[in-house]
Design goal:
six-stranded antiparallel beta sheet, 29% strand, alpha+beta, Yope Regulator, Chain: A, 6 strands
């Protein structure tokens, strides 16, 4: 796993201090990788738990399950932070170069999903703020 991760231009700051988890950075976002021999799971930091509601997490989870392209993805809560995990299944029949290319595509897909989810969270939070601001103005009118 380490050899193929080191070959990825999207990955930097590879840290092997943990015995079972490789810590790294994926395009500036903290990430982790775990080797399960038949596949590599790559987790990318998504958002702090207190910033997003449980309802939004349920919505995102249902969306990922419903879409065929994101069925190899999952959200995990770890130490107060949500992580997005994606699975890359290793095909031992492929050459190392083919595996490198396939993992690169998977990393780009993980990054695209995390960017999309971040835009959804931003949209949801701005909508919630707009509603709360409007309700606050309406309450001020009633009180005045």
């Amino acid at each position: 796993m380490l050899e193929i991760l080191k070959m990825q231009p999207l990955i930097s700051n590879i840290d092997l201090s943990d015995a079972h988890i490789v810590h790294l950075t994926l395009l500036g976002i903290p990430a982790k990788a775990m080797d399960y021999r038949h596949s590599i799971c790559i987790g990318v930091f998504f958002i702090e738990r207190k910033i997003i509601s449980d309802t939004a997490i349920r919505y995102i989870t249902l969306m990922m399950v419903a879409l065929e392209d994101t069925q190899d993805f999952a959200l995990q809560l770890n130490d107060g932070y949500w992580w997005l995990w994606g699975r890359y299944t290793i095909d031992n029949k492929e050459t190392l170069d083919d595996r490198r290319k396939a993992l690169s595509i998977k990393l780009e897909q993980i990054h695209a999903v995390i960017q999309h989810l971040n835009s959804l969270v931003t949209t949801m939070n701005s909508s919630k703020t707009s509603v709360l601001t409007k309700q606050g103005r309406d309450a001020n009118r009633v009180i005045s």
